[in-house]
Amino acid sequence: MSKTAMARALTGAAALMLVMAGAGQAQEPAAEPATQAAPPATEAAQTVKLGYLRTWEPTLALSVLNIPPEDIGVAGAEVGIADNNTTGSFMGQNFTMDVVTLKPGEDVAAATRTMLEAGIHYIVTDLSGPDTLAVAELAATADALVLNAGATDDSLRGADCRANMLHTAPSRAMLTDGLAQYLMWKQWREWALVAGEHPDDQKFADALKRSATKFGGKIVAEKLFEDKGGARATDSGQALVQRQIPVFLQDLPDHDVLLVADESEVFGSYVPWRNWIPRPVAGTAGLTPGSWHPAAEQWGGAQIQNRFVDAAGRRMESKDMQAWTAVRVIGEAASRTQSVDPATIDAYIKSPDFTVAAFKGQRLTFRDWDWQLRQPVLLGTEASVVSSSPQEGFLHQVSELDTLGIDEPETACDFGG
Prior knowledge:
With 417 residues, the protein is α/β, with parallel strands linked by helices. It is 34% helix and 16% strand. The chain is built from ten helices and twelve strands. The strands form three sheets. The chain has a five-stranded parallel sheet, sandwiched between helices. A four-stranded parallel sheet has the order 7-6-8-9, covered by helices on one side. Strand 11 and strand 12 (385-389) form a beta hairpin. Helix 3 packs parallel to helix 4 (129-140), helix 5 crosses helix 6 and helix 9 crosses helix 10 (342-349). The longest helix has 20 residues, at 3-22. 44% of the residues are buried.
């Protein structure tokens, strides 16, 4: 073999190893790889256009460590595009992404129409529930697909579901079911619940109560925390919190776990280590459920974390993983079908044959009754992953992942035939 031929062979082998690593090193059994020779250098790559539409603005949090970075979600999507193009280079496929960031409350319609008019068929969203639904309805007029990577609203998988809206973000029901399974596995069955007064706080509290009923937990008492405003960082703040939080919680009856529902970041981070009865705290504070965790490294997680750190300069958060997965769904379908035709890709994604690897120990699939991605829920503290649900012993006739969230017999989703 000539030196030139040997160099080409080594380069091809190295590239193939990179693709295999990008698909999820040491995580789940790999499906048979799509086989197609690399296209001739003279052949123009076929382009798949994606859009990423989100709302973001600097926000306060009780802890500066909880303030979302400016590139939250976007960074995950960009790594996903890079991974798609690594594989796409062998398939004659090229993936691009247009990112549009709006402020909360800005109209999403104009940005959505601009993307559709530019020929973008796939729109990844990180928006509120109502805005996600508005984008899906506009996208439906152009037969475009929306991948919800941000909104956890159960209604988007229920009465407000849409046939062209898929979800890589877990629902609140999935998150609270994952937490409830662990608490029941620990035999911590009696829970006190303190919730904020804002709508999203109440939705999370409702999900916790539903999970308690589903798995046999008991809510022994509930309290409402009123948002009275005030400075979150003052010289006397810690002293006030140390006095006020225990007093607020002292009339709760005995319980095994104190559940917190505070998506609005008004009081939740103040509760651990300040509760009146010394009990573990879980929910939106203490032990929290998520689709991912910055400390996750099992099932090849270290590999995606390292690549993400190289690209973004920080560890991967849940929204980054949800956006990465949404982008990889498109890349995986394009490589498996060896096509960039939207109808072909869409049909494959919605087929029983579709799976995507996401460093969670198994290949993930979509539920065909609401287009929610089945996925484990990681339970963690600020420093580490404590467990992963579904827990041992929670069985299902189809998939143990369907013990998390709304199962088919109870769904309110109707795609209209």
